[in-house]
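Please check this:
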Amino acid sequence: MSQRGVWQLKKLVVSYCNWGGSSRGVRELMESKLPAFKESNPQLEVETKHIGGQHPHLEGIYRNKNERTVCVRNMTPEEVLECATKLRNSLGRKVVKLKTRHVTKHPSVQGTWTTALKL
């Protein structure tokens, strides 16, 4: 995703194993769909890295110096491409869990409403 017209994903690293069965989808992706993905995203640096004897994964390195790693073990080439597209479309911010469902700058003076309220 772009923020103010600048794509946030700077580099995508595709790590795979030459002979591992869990890397089959990544190897097929590199032969068939990765060149088209590179051409359609010229702002993105795509690097392939051989890691022997380990499960494949995608690493996204963002402009705000955050990194995200997604395991793509035993996935089809279409699923791996979808994961790469999700990494490209995200901003790279850390996920923050909210304490409540409703966030406001000015909380109610009267208190929160509940179904057990008796008037």
The mean pLDDT is 90.
